[in-house]
């Protein structure tokens, strides 16, 4: 997960900002947004930590194993939540990808981007294809759409003020940015 330092810092900033916004979404008045926001915040902050440039911190092997355990638990939670909301299937794939990257880094802790990472090329390629498709799909969904609050009647009248956590287009932009960040992290594996 460690490439050139400047790209690493940009990836850290992008993922941390996305995680912070997802924490704000946890305060949404819309139940569907609250349910997914916690998983997305965990993913954003976890990706930010894993993307820290190697010059700053070279995590010991147990840290990678810790990431694998945390995201393994997140994968189980996403699998359970997918019974009610199919968007959690994407969270399941993302959490499994994080487990995969953490396990690859634990297996070869000295391998960094461009220096012979420890991932399986076929699985890495499949995950890259999935996230590339997800990024294209998410980008297409950013076309102007009515807000979820208005569609569910949660926003009141046309002049109702929406909170930051209720902005559907911002949530979609965060998902798009995390998909792009996942591609960047997989490319460095």
The largest sheet, given as strand count, sense and whether it forms a barrel, is: none
Order of helices and strands: HHHHHHH
Number of self-contained structural domains: 1
Mean pLDDT comes to 81
Q: What is the number of strand segments?
A: 0
Fold and architecture overview:
This protein has 189 residues and is mainly alpha-helical. The radius of gyration is 17 Å and the shape is globular. The protein has one domain (5-187). Helix 1 runs antiparallel to helix 2, helix 2 runs antiparallel to helix 3 and helix 3 (61-81) packs antiparallel against helix 4 (88-107). The chain has helices at 5-25, 31-50, 61-81, 88-107, 121-141, 148-151, 168-187. Residues 112-116 and 155-159 have low confidence and may be disordered.
Characteristics:
7 helices, mainly alpha, 189 residues
Give the helices and strands, then pairings.
Blueprint: H1 5-25, H2 31-50, H3 61-81, H4 88-107, H5 121-141, H6 148-151, H7 168-187
Helix pairs in contact: 1-2, 1-7, 2-3, 2-4, 2-7, 3-4, 5-7
Short summary:
With 189 residues, the chain is an all-alpha fold.
């Amino acid at each position: 997960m460690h490439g050139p330092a400047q790209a690493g810092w940009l990836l850290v900033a992008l993922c941390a900002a996305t995680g912070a916004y997802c924490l704000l979404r946890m305060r949404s008045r819309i139940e569907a947004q609250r349910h997914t926001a916690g998983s997305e915040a965990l993913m954003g902050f976890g990706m930010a930590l894993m993307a820290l440039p190697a010059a700053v911190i070279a995590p010991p092997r147990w840290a990678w194993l810790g990431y694998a355990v945390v995201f393994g638990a997140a994968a189980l939670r996403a699998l359970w939540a997918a019974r009610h909301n199919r968007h959690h299937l994407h969270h399941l794939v993302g959490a499994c990808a994080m487990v995969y990257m953490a396990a690859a880094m634990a297996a070869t802790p000295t391998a960094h981007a461009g220096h012979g990472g420890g991932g399986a090329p076929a699985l890495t390629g499949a995950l890259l294809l999935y996230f590339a498709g997800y990024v294209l799909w998410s980008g297409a969904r950013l076309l102007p759409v009515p807000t979820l609050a208005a569609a569910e009647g949660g926003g009141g009248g046309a002049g109702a003020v929406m909170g930051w956590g209720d902005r559907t287009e911002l949530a979609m932009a965060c998902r798009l940015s995390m998909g792009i960040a996942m591609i960047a992290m997989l490319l460095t594996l």
